Amino acid sequence: MSAINQRLSSWGLNSPAARRNITGYIFISPFILGVLIWFLVPAATAGWLTFQKWNLITAPRFVGLDNIENLFEDELFLQSLKVTTMYTLVAVPLGLVLSFFIALLLNTKIRGISIYRTVYYLPSIVPAVASAVLWAFILNSEFGLLNAGLRAVGLPKILWLQEPEWALPALILMSLWGLGATMVIYLAGLQGIPDVYYEAAEIDGAGAGNKLIHVTIPLLSPVIFFNLVMGIIASFQIFTAGYLITSGGPQNATLFYVLYLYRAGFLHLKMGYAAALAWVLFIIIMGLTVLIFKYVGSMIYYEDTR
Amino acid sequence: MLKNVGQRTLIQLILLVGAILMALPFLWMVSSSLKHELHIFQFPPQIIPNPIRWLNYPEALANPNAMPFHIYVKNTVIIVIVREAAVLLSASFCAYGFARLRFVGRDIWFGIVLATMMVPYIVLMVPTYVLFARLQWIDTFLPLTVPWFFGGGAFNIFLLRQFFRTIPEELADAARIDGCNEYAIYARILMPLAKPGLIAVAIFTFIDGWNDFMGPLLYLNSPENYTVALGLALFRAAVGAFGSAGGRARWDWLMAASTAMVIPVILVFFALQRYFVKGVVMTGLKG
């Protein structure tokens, strides 16, 4: 023990401050190692892969910028980018607004509220695969629930999964079933707003609409912002529904970006090309996040900066 | 807050309609899972199946066209249990450092924790696969468990750090005066007191592990190593298309298998609901 202490003090590591630092880094060392092994090593590998042609079996071959140049001539790449962007542009705002609206209603004190909260939340924890199998059935043009509903009110059936113009809307509809995950974060935020703010607004003569615009939305803006950023990041990574329900079809109408990336890497074994696709996705998501932070972030109201 | 009865009724009504829409897919799944094959194709659809056919469940879960599901369940349970141990130990250990210790660079590292929550991990899918292939871990459970020993996920570190910060410092100070070092304070004082937070993390870890599809899809090849999520996808491919399994798509079996996969998640939710809520509130973006 004393030998160790001597060694430590000879390095200047035996002062209380140094020992505190060592203890601190020992505690967070699993995370630091994790970042190195599962983040920095793959990121460096991805950088190297981008300049290789490699099918995982034969030796990788350096091809310079070929993978990146090929991107711009690849129609499927552009198609997948278009599909994912359209999906994000519709599904994210729709989900954000709808879940916010439901959270507002669920933040009232009416009878049966805890049952309602459960019913709205539960679909969001249903496993993605079970949800995909279920929705493949619901959207089935012959025997599905959705077309049975249309038929019951006298409307013609829609070929949800066979017609290119309907497949993406169908998957957006399906995504709304899982809005409980966003809703519950709003709800937690709403419950953190003290009643005194509303009481003060009422004394000033504010109605329900004014309270929403001048109290609820400003105080909830960090939560809205969080849901927006996370919603976009998640939306660009959508995979399971396109993979299991539509296989990217019909006519590539639901060829999501990650589905195309997955196929490039693991179906066609073009690891270098898949890495190039991944970099593009990374740049898009990072770029969007930075833009949102810059332009929307300044509109956020922070109650106190601790 | 709500003064008049009209407003109250309107909210009730909207919530009721919405709740029916949210519940319908569930009811449809369960109802279809108990229908006779022929009643699946009937219009208008039966709401309560007549006759109720429980046999769909054993037929789906041990089907000659696919692997029996108990193998998938066994695999998933092994993966989830190892992951729980990894996450609970590793995330709480890191969280203690961030919540209770002062050291040079702590806030920078915590910033990195928060930043990694926003990394789109799917962009690392290919190089991570290459890494696991080099390690010869493909078609083993190692890629689905080992990484969780390294911090247990940024979200869990964040959640537990928030939780640790709510526990009064005085308890630890008293232990320090009695000669306890930080490791003892972490293990003997903070961990027992953080039980609700740990349970919340355990629930999230269970649901993530049980539901995970991408991980098993990438790293597991042989059906006898498949998890429930992957097994259900395989089962759909086997009996879900026209002409497969010698005839029609068997939606009755598929709904039975899907229902069976959902049940454990729902049970965990209802059994541990209050911890669930606590977990969500904890990460309610404050502090």
Question: Please, could you describe this protein's structure?
Answer:
The complex is a heterodimer of chains A (306) and B (287). Chain A has 14 helices and 2 strands. By secondary structure, chain A is mostly helical. A two-stranded antiparallel sheet of chain A has the order 1-2. In chain A, helix 4 packs parallel to helix 8. The two termini of chain A are 42 Å apart. The mean pLDDT of chain A is 89. With 287 residues, chain B is mostly helical. Chain B has a domain of 167 residues: MetI-like fold (Orthogonal Bundle), CATH 1.10.3720. In chain B, helix 3 runs antiparallel to helix 9, helix 9 packs across helix 13 and helix 11 runs antiparallel to helix 12. At the A-B interface, helix 2, helix 4, helix 5, helix 6 and helix 7 of A face helix 1, helix 3, helix 4, helix 5 and helix 9 of B.
Please supply descriptive tags for the structure shown above.
heterodimer, A: about 300 residues, mainly alpha, MetI-like fold, 2 domains, flat, B: about 290 residues, 13 helices
